[in-house]
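Try this one yourself first.
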C-alpha cells in the first residue's frame, strides 16, 4: 500500500485492476458491458480505474457477464 493510501483505496484500486484485466482479456468494450450489465459506461470506467468501489451485486454481474466466477472477489 502506498504512503497515505487508505486500505479501502488500495482495495478499490486492486479490484478495479482485476476487473479491468478481465474485461480486456474478454475483448469486450465498455459499451458492450454497459448493455449486458445495464450499468453506464462512465460508472464502469470508474470501477475499472478503482476510483469507486462497486456494490457486490455489480461485481458479481460483471464477472458473470465476462465469463468468470465472482466468488474469489467477494472479499475485496
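Now uncover the answer:
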Amino acid at each position: 500500500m502506498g504512503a497515505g493510501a487508505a486500505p479501502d483505496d488500495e482495495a478499490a484500486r486492486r479490484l478495479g485492476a482485476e476487473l479491468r484485466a478481465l474485461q480486456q482479456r474478454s475483448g469486450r468494450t465498455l459499451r458492450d458491458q454497459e448493455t449486458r450489465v445495464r450499468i453506464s459506461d462512465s460508472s464502469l470506467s470508474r470501477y475499472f480505474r478503482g476510483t469507486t468501489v462497486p456494490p457486490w451485486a455489480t461485481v458479481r454481474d460483471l464477472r458473470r457477464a465476462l465469463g468468470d466466477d465472482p466468488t474469489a472477489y467477494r472479499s475485496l
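Discussion: Residues 32 and 38 are 10 Å apart (CA to CA). The helical segments are 7-26, 30-37, 41-49, 56-65.
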